[in-house]
Structures are given as structure tokens and as C-alpha cells.
Amino acid sequence: MSEIINQWPIVAALIATGIFAGILAGLFGVGGGIVIVPVLYFLLQGFGVSPESAMMIATATSLATIVPTSLSSIRSHHSKGNIDLALIKYWAPFILVMAVVGSIIAHTVRGNALVLMFACIAILVSLNMLFRAGAPALVKQLPGKFGQGVMASIVGSLSVMIGIGGGTIGVPMLNAFNVRAHVAVGTAAVFGLLIALPGVITLLSIGTTPTDAPLGTWGLVNLPAFFLIIPLTILFAPIGVKIGSKLDQKQLKRAFAVVLMITGIRMLIQTLGA
Predict the structure, then answer these.
(1) Prediction pTM value
(2) What is the pLDDT of residues 100-112, one digit of tens each?
(3) For the chain, what is the radius of gyration of the CA atoms?
């Protein structure tokens, strides 16, 4: 991707993405992928990469960035006591297994299907943020072991297929079952690591570099984008944690939801019009 690195607007966009993704990872426990995937998806197409290849590269690269970002976020949340270790202990095997299964499925389906899935999930997440910000829990407590296994499997499989951390799906799910907001965010940071690490390893093992991939792409991971984004996500994730403890999260969530809604609709229109 030497042509991207040589153009400052692209570099500036990736820097902004890294900062924003890092802050979001700490603020909402979303792993940053909800921002990184669409930015890379549209940027890569601007350099002649097909939409299908762009989505696969964006997904794998996003997962790669989530690994160190989630570690930074986990450290910050652990120091504040925001991680439910008992829940992690039970959910981890389900998430790990389904992350591998989801990666294999993502590699076999058409890229447009992944774009459509990402767009739909982005829109649903934005609607949840807009209309359920601060709303009471739907259920008083988490279900039994079987129900939690199903929940963990959904978080692991869907998240890895579209390159997002566990927070985008996991946080609203935990909130709906009356898990405290800060604990849900901190626990979801661990979900992100459990999803991204096996996911990116699987994609690197089975994935082949698309013929129209930009220079610097190893398997399905674009290394220049990874190395440009990752220092910023690591640096700004703890800042997001601090911001989250001081600001009104209702207003923050609603602002982010609007941006996410616009992104999801744009990707949906492009996919259905293809």
C-alpha cells in the first residue's frame, strides 16, 4: 500500500481512524472495528480494490488491530474493577470456538454478504443506541448456562465475521440482561481479545491474498494500515476509559449512533445497488 502511505489525506484518515477507534474501544467497549472496517472498506475501493476484496481485507485488518487495542483496554478496565471474571470464565470457550468457526464461514461466503451483514448490524446497533440509551434492562438477570452459551456463541461468531470486537454486540446484550454498564463495557473488552486473536490467526492461515489487494497485504491483513492505526488505538483506548467515567454517555452514544447509522445505510445502498 505504498501508494496510500504516500498520500497524506489517506494517512490522515487512517490516523483519525486510529484515534477514534481507540477512544471508542475504551468508551463503549466496541473494539474499534465498528469504525475501522467501514473506513478501510471505502478507502481500499478508492484504490481500485473490488468491494468483495475490500471487505475481506478490512475485516481481517480490523481483527488484527483489535488484538493489541483490547489488551490496552483490558488493562484499564481491570484496574477499575470493571471485568466480570466469572462470566469470562464460562463464556470464553464458546467465544473462542465460534470465532474460529465464524472466520471459516467468512472466508467461504461472498464479500458482499459480509458487507450486507455489517451494514445491518451497524444499523441495528445505532437504533439500539438511539432509542435504548439509558433504558432499563429488559430482563433482571442473565439466563442459565445454556442461554449464556448461546449468547456467547452469537457474540463470537457474528463479531468475527464482520471484523468487530465483542462490545458492539456484547455490550447491548449484557445491558439488556441487567449487567451494569461499566462492567458490560469492561467485560466486552475481554470478548474482543477472545474474538480477534483466534479470528485473525484463522484468516491468516486459510486466507489467500486477493489479486487486486494493495501492496503490503499479507494474507488478508494489510500491514501498512495495521501499523499506522495500531499505535494510536493503544494510546487512546485508556483515554476513552477516562472519558467514559466523566461524560454523559447518553449524549455520546446518540451522537455515535447517528454516524453509525449513516455509515450502515451507505454500505447497504452500495451493496444492494451492486
Answers:
(1) 0.83
(2) 999 999 888 876 8
(3) 17
